[in-house]
Design goal:
192 residues, alpha+beta, Gyrase A, domain 2, 4-stranded antiparallel beta sheet, two-stranded antiparallel sheet, elongated
C-alpha cells in the first residue's frame, strides 16, 4: 500500500477515534503517534507536513520551541534536520503583532517582507571582513532572510550578497565601503 494512502487512512481512523494510540496536537489534528506500529520510522514528507501545519496554526517563536512540540507529538528531530526542513519548506521567521514567529514564506506574499531592522538584532551572531568582503554569521536559518533584507536596502556600497544557511557573504565596492557597511550593520544588530 502506498505510504501516503496509508498515512491518510490512519489519520482518518484516528480522527474518527478508531486508532486508540493517536495523539493529537492542541488544535485536534493528529500527530505522528497516530502512525505507531511498533517503531517510529522517520518520514520526511510527513514530518514536513506536520511542520507546515504547526507553523500555520500556532505562534512558534523559535526552532527550539518547534522541536519540543514535534518531540511531544512523537517526531524524533534534531536541530540540523529542523533547520534543513524549514529552509526547504521556505518557512521564515517574521515579525508579527505578538512578536517574532515562524510562517510559511507564501504567507508573506503581498505583505511587507521582514525588515533588516527587525531581523538582524534577532538573528545576528558575528561579523568580520577582509578587503571588499564581509562575512556575517547568523543563527540557523537566518542568512537567507537577512541577505534578502540587505539587498532590499539597495545600499550603494554593496555590489551583492550570497546567503547560505547561517552565513552571508557581502561583497562591497571597496575596503572603505566595507567599513561603512560593517558599522551600519553593527549598529542595526545592536538595536541602535
Amino acid at each position: 500500500m502506498d505510504c501516503c494512502l496509508l498515512f491518510g487512512l490512519v489519520l482518518m481512523l484516528a480522527r474518527e477515534g478508531v486508532c486508540a494510540e493517536a495523539a493529537r496536537f492542541s488544535d485536534g489534528s493528529v500527530s505522528r503517534q497516530a502512525l505507531h506500529v511498533g517503531e517510529f520510522v522517520s518520514n520526511k514528507p510527513e514530518r514536513q507536513q506536520a511542520i507546515i501545519h504547526l507553523v500555520s496554526t500556532q505562534a512558534i517563536a523559535s526552532q527550539r520551541e518547534l522541536e519540543q512540540i514535534l518531540r511531544k507529538a512523537g517526531w524524533d528531530v534534531t536541530q540540523a534536520t529542523l533547520s534543513r526542513d524549514l529552509r526547504e519548506l521556505g518557512i521564515v521567521r517574521a515579525q508579527a503583532e505578538d512578536g517574532a514567529r515562524y510562517v510559511p514564506g507564501d504567507q508573506l506574499a503581498g505583505q511587507d517582507k521582514p525588515q533588516l531592522l527587525t531581523l538582524l538584532p534577532e538573528l545576528f551572531s558575528s561579523m568580520e571582513g577582509v578587503g571588499e568582503l564581509l562575512v556575517l554569521r547568523t543563527l540557523p536559518s537566518g542568512a537567507q532572510p537577512i541577505a534578502e533584507a540587505i539587498d532590499d536596502q539597495r545600499w550603494p556600497e554593496i555590489l551583492g550578497t550570497i546567503g547560505g544557511e547561517n552565513t552571508i557573504l557581502i561583497i562591497c565596492r571597496s575596503p572603505s565601503a566595507r567599513d561603512i557597511v560593517t558599522q551600519r550593520l553593527r549598529k542595526i544588530a545592536e538595536g541602535r
